[in-house]
Amino acid sequence: MDSRDTDWDGVRLHVVTGKGGTGKTTVAAALALALASGGHKVLLVEVEGRQGIAQIFDLPPLPYEERRIAVAPDGGDVYALAVDPEEAMLEYLEMFYGMRRAGRALTKMGVLDFATTIAPGFRDVLVTGKTSEAVRRRGKDGKRVYDAVVLDAPPTGRITRFLNVTEEVADLARVGPIKNHSDLVRGVVKSPETAVHFVTLLEEMPVQETLDGLADLRAAGLPPGGVFINMVREPLLPQPVLDKAVKGRVDTAELVAGLEAAGLATGGDAKALAEALAEELAEHARRTEIERDERETLTAAERPSYELPLLADGVDLAGLYELAESIRTQGAA
């Protein structure tokens, strides 16, 4: 079994969050594959009911059960679980009250909605509780069932409250099973075995949400992880050329000469094409400069960062394995 050192040795629960549109679920899936590499067993969990894991791995909708969905590079298995709050509620009732059958009847009557109305954070406690149980679970041989658990968590704006909801519920229920359950979840989520990773793009809004989210985590006493910069585009031209282009100093006459020499266009057509190319070049240069500035802004986070490439053909299974390899190469798994 692979025993390579990583930036997150000792971490067993990897929570992945990010602003919508940053590729949060894709990065969570790639991280699970990377962690499983070399013969490990990893559970990938989703809690928002979107069946995002099934879509990424090109599978039918996942049921509420842990099942193997992928084989990792160099051996190792990725299992997946789409948490259903009602099923988690039934497990909870069975675990603490021995009333699964009665609980099934109660769920039909809307008891879950009733319970979450009385204690608004109870639904989140149920889904984080299921994840925490998987982190703690041991087999008959006494060994951990999973080497790591990756949680595809809610977006950045909700992540701190989602993970810290056990505090609120514990305040409502100071004794009894709910209190005990909340304490168990909190014991995992706030331990050194957990890291909350952020997925961002090199754009102003997701970068700012990442910095705000990290600040919120620290204030709540939750363990910040790394920053995954997704969909990174490599500059197409040398920096001196980009510096000129961003200032509007593109020599269109030189472009015209190049187009004519290559036999691509002549005369007025070459001039029109050169002007269009100059504008495209200036736009590329401006975007590259913005991305450079946002990358520098992220240094304020003082967290390990990992850059994942923009895949020209989109994220299919082959692309997912490519991202997993990039994560491993950079020492994140």
UniProtKB/TrEMBL annotation:
Pfam families cross-referenced by the UniProt entry: ArsA_ATPase
Domain ArsA/GET3 Anion-transporting ATPase-like: 13-171
InterPro entries according to UniProt: ArsA/GET3_ATPase-like (IPR025723), ATPase_ArsA/GET3 (IPR016300), P-loop_NTPase (IPR027417)
PANTHER family listed in its UniProt record: ARSENICAL PUMP-DRIVING ATPASE ARSENITE-TRANSLOCATING ATPASE, ATPASE RV3679-RELATED
Designated name of the protein: AAA family ATPase
